[in-house]
Every structure is written in structure tokens, then in C-alpha cells.
Batch of 2 targets.
Target 1
Amino acid sequence: MCLGVPGKVVEVNGNTATVDFWGVRRQVFLDVVDEPVAVGDYILNHVGFAIRRIPESEIAETLALFEQLLQDSDQDDLMARDVRGEIAATGDPNREPS
Amino acid sequence: MVEALARVTAELGRAPVSVMHVCGSHEQAIAKFGLRTTFPRSLNVIMGPGCPVCITDTPEVDEGVVLARQGVHIATYGDMVRVPGTVMSLADTQADGAKIHIIYSAGQAVDLAKQLKEPVVFFATGFETTAVATAAVILKGIPDNLSILSAHKYIPPVMEIVAEMPETKVEGFLAAGHAAAITGWGVFEPFVQRHRLPVVVAGFEPLDILAGLVRLIELVRDRAPAVVNMFPRCVTKEGNRPAQEQLWRVFRPMGGRWRGIAHVPNGNLRLRDEFAHLDARRRFTIDLTSLWDYAPPALAQSCICGDIMAGISSPTDCTLFGKECVPEKPVGACMVSSEGACRIWRQYGGHPDLGDVQ
């Protein structure tokens, strides 16, 4: 549960952002992120909140790690399951903002 | 890297040496990639209290169970539902008609409360990383029918307890990368000063873990207690300031029990008085004696999840492991959670025999 999963910010709307996780667009809260976030940035998402803006120099390495993890793992894999859980923790971008 | 680890461990000139990590994701990576087969025989890498679901103690589960049996909607993170309390789990109450909702985030608890318009209790578990999200949701404002049952835990104080346990003889800690992203690595400095034990912050890629272990054993060898950050791509000294501010505005650290680790001073995160009106413990009468009519399951007496959490025992030391206790029918919390040592060892094989014949 202490895992952060990376995604790309495609839209910022006040305290929420639409974030792309490998083609899936989800809503993420920006209330506790460490640095201001803009479109094009990558963030680490944990339970629906961006907890870190990933510095430019670290994006490629971070993404590669998760991509390998998701590719190499079947449905039952515990690590991959936790990663998918973190993506499920984000909001549906099509619902009314709360 | 494997050779470096063998060399530096040999340079210690003694055996065995035990170090502890406190992160379910570290254990997943160690087991999944079979890293223990590459460790020198004299090096024990122990999983400590790093599974938030597992260290949630039985009385805390009982509070959720009693509320559920009173007819209150309970919203909680998935794995919590199957964690046994003294006599039953939330899943067991569900079989009797209790209303249990699995959520993935605190925000979904808010949505649920808005939708249901009936009393909902968010049974909030997890370490500081997850507590930050609970704090942020509370500060944004939550509906009147939503209360918080906080079982959130704070990692740094439990390291002090484990460091003092005579049974474990831990000589250094591998700290979890993403949790430290919130607190910053500076949070470990007082610990290192007090206990003269090194702490290395590491990521959870196999190479990150190996590199972290090499550095940690070097520090043990050199008798150089220090905090070393081997995960700078994620962790800074100060950590995430806005997250810390919100965390401590909502929560205060309080002593309390962790499963298997006894009382941990300042180890639990409870709502501050100004949020008392949201605190399920104050809004509801939680009568734990109502569970006294039930007897605990006999198998639970043999479960050593507590000792596993404390790093005293391994999953394979348990007589139930893989026999009476399996992921489909878990006896203890360590077999329930994807971050629990038993569940992880059951899935990946935790300590392959290869490690013993090197």
C-alpha cells in the first residue's frame, strides 16, 4: 500500500488532474503533491493522490520499471495487482466532480 | 552487485548478520526475483512490520466488526476485509448481512457516503503514506454521515521498538522508498543517533535492493551509523512538506498496539481533537464486549503472524503455513494481504533451498 504509480498529467483543473496511466485516463487529486504540477509532468499516484512530481531526469527509468513489471506478470502476480489497485484508486474522469 | 554483497558480507569476518526491511513491496521484489538465492548464507534479510494490513491489530479489526454488526456501512481497503479480528473478520460479518464496501481510496469513501446518505465509517488503515490521503480528504471537507475509524500507523517509532528487541538482533534497516518520499530521509537521523544503527533508503527494483544492501552492510562493517539515501530519484531529505503539513494538522501520534509488536509509543495516528466530530470512536458506542459470546477459531491460536511481523519468525516456521493457512482460506493477517510475508512466500517461494546450499 505504500506504492506510488507513475502517470502523465494531461489536464489540470484546480486541485485535480487528469492523468494518463498507460492509456487509461483517470482523475488524481493534487492536494498533497510536493511541487506545482503542469500538463506534461509525470506524477507518482498513491491511493488517488499525487504524492510526488517526478523530476524530468527520472521519468524514463521510473516508467521502464513499471512497464516491465506489468508486462512480465500475470493476473495473479501480487506486485502487478498492487499496481493495478493504485490505478483503481483514482477517480473516473467522466463523473461529476465532488 | 551480488559479488559485491558477498564480498562485503565476508569482510565482516563474522556470521550471521541480520538486517531488516519494513516494506511489503521490498519483500515482494525479494521473493519474486528470488534475491535470497543470491544473498550470502551468513546474511539474513528479515521482513519486519512493513505490511500495513498485517500490523493492524486485532482490537482495531474488532472495532470495525462491531460497527458493521451494528448496521453501519463500513468502507475499507480491500485486503482489510478478510483480516481476522478476535472472533471474526469483516467478511464474516458480511455473510450475516453487514454492509461492507471495498474502496481503493479515501476519496471513494466520500463518494460512497454522498451516494448512500446513511452512516458510513471509513476504516482507515495504512502507514503515513496512506494517512496523508485520509488527512487531505478530511481537510477538503467530508459529508456529515461519514466518520473515520483511524488505524493508521507511523513507521519511524516501530523501528525503535524492533531495534531494541533482543530476539531479532537487527544490525541495520533498509527503509522503504515511497514511504520515505513523504517523511524524507531526515526523519531517520534521530533514530540512527539513538540506536547507532545504519539506515539505507532503497527503491524496490531488484538492483535497487541489492545496491541498498551492499551499502547497508558496508555501514555495518565500518561501524558507521548513518542514513544513506540510495533512492534519490524519489526521496529527499525534507520529504514532501505539503503532505507532512496536512498529515500532522489532522493526526497526532499516539501510543498503541501493533500486531505482534506490543505497545508502540507514538506508533498510531489518531484524529486530533478538532476533528473529534468525525471520529467514529467518539460518534458511536463501540461495545467490544458484544463479541465475547463468540469463541476465537482454534487454528488462530497457532498463528504466528505476530512473531513474523516482529521479524522473530519466518512464514515457514509456522505449522499452519501452506497447510491449514492458504491465501484462499487465511488463518492470519500475514496470509491475507498482498504485502504480507506469508502471502508473498506462498506465491513466490520465500526462501528457496538454493540459499541454503550455497
Note: Residues 5-88 of chain A form a domain with the SH3 type barrels. fold (CATH 2.30.30.140).
Target 2
Amino acid sequence: MDTQHREFLDPAVLTRLSSLPLYARKMMMGNVSGRHRSPHRGSSIEFAEYRKYVQGDDPRRLDWRAYGRSDRFYVKEFEADTNLRLIGVLDTSGSMKYGANGVSKLDYGKRLIASLGYLASQQGDAVGLTCAAQGLGVQVPAKRNAAHLRNVFNTLADIKPKGETGLVEALHKVAEQVRQRALIVIASDLFVPPSELLDCFQHLRFRKHDVVVFHLLEAAELEFTFDRPTRFLDLEGGPSLLVEPSVIRREYEAALKEYIEGIDAAVRDSAVDYHRIRIEEPYGDVLARFLVSRTPRRSRR
Amino acid sequence: MTFLQPWLLWGLPLALIPLVIHLINLRRHRTVEWGAMQFLLQATRQNRGKTRLRHFLIMLARILGVAGLLFAISRPMSGRWFSWFGDQPDTIILLLDRSASMAQQDMQTNESKRSLAVEQIATALERTGEPPNLVLIESTRNTPQTLESAASLREIPETRATDADANLPAMMQSALDYIVSNQAGRTDIWICSDTQSGDWNSEGGQWAAIRSGFQELKQPVQFHLLAYSQSAADNASIRISELRRERGTDTDRLVMDIQIRRSQADGSAKLPVGIVVDGARTVIDVEMQGESFALDDQFVPIDKEKEFGWGKVELPPDVNPRDSVFYFTYGNDILKRTVVVSDQPGSAWALKLAAAPPVEKSTAEAKIIRPDEIGSIEWNETSLIMWQAALPPAETAQKLEAFINAGGQIVFFPPQDDSTESFQGVKWGDWDKLTLGPDEQAVKDWRDDSGLLAHADNGSPLPVNRIIVNDFRRLTGSGQVLAHLQSGDALLQRIPTDHGGVYFCATLPQQPFSNLAQAGIAYFVMVQRALADGAERLLESQFGLIGDQLVDEDAPAWQRIDGWEEGTLSSEQRFVAGIYQEGDRLLARNRPSAEDNPGTLTSSELERLFGGLNYRIVQDQVEGASSLVSEIWQAFVLLLLIALIVEAALCLPDVRTKKVVTP
């Protein structure tokens, strides 16, 4: 049992969230039975459809009442429940180091993915991890045992923000490498061109993955609240800039607006589950809202 | 632009405080590790245009605001007269046109062009600080006069009104001479004039020399012309062109030709012309059409027994009262007096006979005196001196030159004795005999277009070719030769003078020297012409024009009995119109005829006159004249306010658009 203290795991939050199951919006193709719908017919109590009897079908599955009404042989089929693969994609570029009140965007992303991984693992789902940074291709494949979850946590604990973002490459890579349907949870500041993101999202959607995006932003990035000359050091290693914030505030806001509109268009076109997050907000609330939003309206059991 | 508190301008660097604060602010920047660099880079790229300009304007407005405040509290003075940021010159030379035309005034304030110019200049100098040297060159004397203060301009008689004309080229030359002789430093020459064409003589050849003289000066000279070129809309002038006394059986008549001129050519005007003779006033109403009007042969009866008297013709006072009156004197017929000075009185009969022919009721009179009797000459009443003796020594020569300057005429004839003295650069040489070939005339050529030997009025030539010269005396010295002998020597030579006339005749009229006396006509005409020229000055004294040399005009004993009040000052009365009396002698003074000419120089003519010089022309007018200098701190306060408003407007926060980012 993993007794190591993890900064990105808060037991109180996990306890509060444990009553909220994690559902996928799409059908999953797991190996074992689970909470998630499968595209295949199975043995759950959820009626799926009637099918004509064909040779080879088990006669025990014939619906005699239907035969009595129609004088034809029908087989009654039920939904199959399966588990899912949760692949956390965490942006570990330098820009994720930015944050406030001692919490960086990377820390926030770790908490989101670790918590969701824990919850998924608790309901029998497989959990994997991909770190998106240029030249830093850490990948932990999805597995569903507890030892593997510890491995994922260890990897998260070791991640340091560095270099330029490799999110686009990482997402394409995930889309190619994860062959079966999976829940892809992306935690990033998405500082890449929206058009490239759109390609990634559509690629993932093509591979029938359920994509969740947590867009992590800090208040200063959104409102540019600086009021005196400031030298901005690029966390991703680019050149620094000495600017008078009041001089460029209008242009900054215009650029941000243009970017946000691009992101909105990309997520709208690709139909991903997009959540724009201010990292000042407690991540427990964010996850609770997220889990509730994915709960099916009608009870499944 | 000058400042009443210029020491405050040392604070001008404070205007850079906004810039310094900005730079300090930039240096005290904080450093932030930042992730969203893409937005910063994009914003910086887009910021190169309007926003950068906006912030530059904000900075400029702040700097201008502080500078405007500093300028305002420094109490700047400026005006049409001064160039911005002009420094105070070392010397200011004021050329003041005091001519009669400068008396044009504003009917409401009674301020004339001259008085306004003086007041403007005095006020300007008092406000801006007086230069180390303030020099006045006024138009009557054309001599530099150093002033102690600008305030004295209002008080000294040399800035008061006159009826003289002005000679701007001479004033400019005088200013140039002053600068050269006094090694003046940076000099400003301020010219106050109405730019009347006659006073400026823009076609005169001396302007080129004056321009080049100023251009060659090492020190910078700035010209400021305060021009009152605006002519009066409704001004009329009056003068007498001819005046004579006609004898009658019971009373005499004073007959005069009056000329009236007005500035307005359109329409008709009814002018009451007042004629005052010995205090008795007569008014004639004149219906005037056009610009000028001649009232010829207007007569006024006078007492037959009255030997002399005075009078004036006048118009109602208008915008220029000084050209609305004209003074005159009258007397008996003028006697043309000739004095023959000869060291051989016995042989001078031919000279006397030509000057005063023995006819009944002759108006010519001649007498023969010896050179040592020169003190007996009545200079004021003599028209012609015929000098046939050794050229006068220096003391006597001075008297003769004064006589010439007063309009008198002198004809020198060769003495038979030696003569070593010279007169106006001309000396007598040796006697010589004129030898002629067959059919040769004594006089080779002569000036028949002008001068003493000119053709008669009907164009007939004088019989100069009949003159026979046997002996003649050579002349040394330059002059205008009016007649050459066959030998090439001068028979008659004129010495150039400003006034009067000086002639040298190389032979004597009687035999055996020549046949001038016997041949008669040419000789007689020559002498009578000289006599007539000499008598003309006495005629002019009926209505003497200022500027012409008048009889005893420097004598302080003349008393004003009518005319402008400036004439009470002995130093000024030479230039002031009026009637003056000394004993039983009367003298009339009037403005020169050119002063009635309303023509002024055009801008292009002024530009031509000052071409190549550093000059400014400020047009002023007597009506509604504004000060040449004034405090302009209000303008800088306005600048400050504008700068603050602009700065505030540019700094207004943008109207926030709806937040595009939702959590």
C-alpha cells in the first residue's frame, strides 16, 4: 500500500469526491467489467435490444413471451459494462511554472490528474500518464492495479516544468499510441496556436477518445494587472521583455481575446469537454463540478 | 521674446522632470517570470503604432505643461516687433521720420503716426529693457544723437512734429557711419516711417552703396521697419504755387494761384478755403472734383501803403492738419542786386553794365567795390557777385561759400595780377594768348542745352560763335565746362555745388581781352541768367519751403508770429511751418511740395531696398494701433491648460470591453 505523502493529493478532497463516480461520455472498450458502457452486448441488467434468433444462439436466451406474442424467435440482449482507460496528459512546459500563492499551474494540473487517476483507479479503471514537454517524452501506459497507480504518482512527483511546450506532439502521439478508446484528460495552459490544438482534438476524436481539457490560467495572465514597468522573463527560455504595462495593456488584452476566441472555436468544433480554470479556484470544486457534469441524468443501476 | 523675470528660465530643465521620472520608473522595474509570452510579444509588435504615439504625446504634453508654467511665471514679453527668442542688441539706432506726412493722425485720439511711433518704441524699450546704447537719428538733421533713456524720446524736441521732408537714404548712411565709427556691436536699426516715396527716394543710386555698406559690416545688424503706410482715406492739402503783388491806383492786389489736392479721387467735395492776409480772413467755398484742383489768380486786396505783410491759406483741419495750411509773405518788388568786386574798379564797367543795364525803373542794381570792402556787402539782399580780383583768402571764401549755400551766384573773372589762392579746388593759371587758324572760331563748343549759355526760350542759339577771345587765363581744377576755346581750355566753367552757382569765366569782357562786351548778347544773357538764378531765392522767401536754404535761417532772433507751436523752439523753428519775424523782416516757412504726395512704397519696393539685409517689416496704423510688445504669459497659461487637458484625455482609461475570459 502506498503510504507516501503526495503534495498533489488531498485526502479531504478525495474523500469528498469519492461519492461522485467518474463517467465517460463515450462508450469504452475495457478488458473487464466496469462502470462504463461498452459498444458490445453483455450481461448487465440494462436491456439493450431484441435480436432474431440465429443458429448457434443459446436457447436459454430466447424470450418466450415475445415468441408467444409474435410466433417468432427473438433473443433479448443487454448492455455490457466495462472499465475505461484514463490517460492524463500533463503539460510540463516552462510556462506551467507560473502561478500564484505558491501554487503553479503545473501543481494544479498534477492535483487534477492525480485526483482523477485515484478516483478512476478506485472504480477499477486503468490509469496512465503522458507528460507533454518538448524533448521530454515521459509516458506511463494505462494499467489498473494499485502498484501502477503508485508508479503514476511517482512520475507526477518527479515532474519539473521546463522548456517549451510539446503538447501538440504529445497529443498526436497519444492519439496514435492509445489504440482503444480512452478518457484523455489534458491539463495545460494551452499556450499553443488554437489551430494546432484543433488538429490534435480532431485527431483524438477520430480515434474515438473522450477528451477532457482543463485549461489552466492564472488571474494575472487573464487581466494583466501589472501597473509599473516590468521585465518579463520567459519561463520557456525565450528572450525577456521590459515593458510598460500601461502602454501595451490594450494590445495584450486584444491578443488574449483573439487567443481565447480561437480556443473556444477549436473546442466547439472538436466537441471536447473543455473547462477553463482559474488556478485560484480550489481544485476540489473544479473536480466536483466536472464529475457532476458527467454524471448521466438517469440512474444506471 | 524677452522676459521680465528671465532668471526663472533657469528652471526650464525642470520641464524634463516627467521624462526623468519615466526613465527612473523604467530603471526601477521589477522582474516577473512569465508564461504567457506569446501575448506580450504580440502586444509589443502591435504597440509600435498609435499607442506608442499616444504615449509619446502624453510625455510631450507633460513636458510642455511644465515648460508652459515656467514660461508663464517668467512673464514673457513679445509682440510684432520682436522676433521670438531675440537677444537684446548692444546698440539700437532709431531712425525717426519726422516729415510732415507723419503728422497724419487718428481723428479720435489725435495720435499722429509720428507720436504713435515714438510712444510705441519708447514703451517697447521700457518693457523689454533698454540697450547699452540708444541712438536717435531724426530726419531733419540726420545726425546721430545718443539718448540716455527711452523715456526721453517722449520729451526731447528732436522727436516732435516738423513740416520738413525726410531723406531716408541719408539717415541710413548716417546710421552706417555711426556703426563704423563707433565700432558698435550687435545693432538693431529701428526705422519709423510712413514709407512716403519722396522721402525714401527708392530710385536713388545711394541705396546700393548703403546696402553693400551694411553687408560688409562684421557685426550683425537687424533692421526693423515700423511702417505706417496706410494713407488717409480723406485728406486734403493746400499750397500756393505762385504769388505776386499787383499795383493798383487805389489799392494793390495780392494775386495767388492756389493748389488743392485730396487723397480721395471719387465724388465731389465742398471745401471752404480760408485766405488770411494780415489777420483779415476770407473764405471761398470750392466745389472740388477729382484729386486736384487749381484756384488760379485768386486775389485779395491789400493796402497800397503797406510795404510788407504775411498771410496763409488754409483748409479745415483733417486727418493731417499740417498740410491743410500754407503760409506766405509779401512785400514790394524785389530788387536784384549785383556786387562787382574788382581790384581795378576803373576797368570793371563792363561787368557792372551787364548786371544792371542803365534803364529807367530797372529792378536791377549793381555796385563796384574793392576786395577789401567785402564787409559792406548786404549778403541777404545780393543776388550775384562778379569777382574780378585775386581769388579770396580763406576767411573771405567762407563768407562767399555761405552766400552760395544760401542760393547766391558768383561769377569769377580772371585778375590781371597773380593769384595763388584757390576757390573750391579751382585756381587761376597763367595768362595765355589764343591763336586761331584761318576761319577758326574762338569758341570751339559750348553747352547749349542747359546752363548760362543754353538756347533761348524760342530755341534760338546764343551767338556764342561770334565771341572773339584774344587773351585768356588758364584754369586748374575740375568742374563742368560750359564752353571750350579752340585751344581746348575752358572759357566758362561751372563748379558743382548743392545750392547756388559758382562760375569761372577765363577772359575779361573788355578789349583787348575779348569782345564779350562789344558782341554783347551772349555775355549779357549769361550775366542776366546768373542774376536771375541768384534772385530766385529772394522770390522764394515769399513762401519758403523747408529744406531750401533760407536767409539767416540759423539766426536765433526769428520770432514765431503764426504757425505750429513747435516753431517757438529756436532749435526746431527751421523745420516748422509758420510765419517768423525778425525786426521788420518776415519769413514764411512751409512743408516741401513732396510731402503732399500720398504715394508710399510698395512691399516689393521695400523688399528691393532691403534686399540682402536682415530686416523685418511691421505694418502699423494709427487707428486701433496695438502695442508693439505686450506680456504674453496668458498664452503660456493657455498652453499649460491645453497640455494638461490633452494629457488627461490621452490618459483616460479605455472603456473596458466585456471580459472575454470566463473562469
Note: The CA atoms of residues 234 and 254 of chain A lie 20 Å apart.
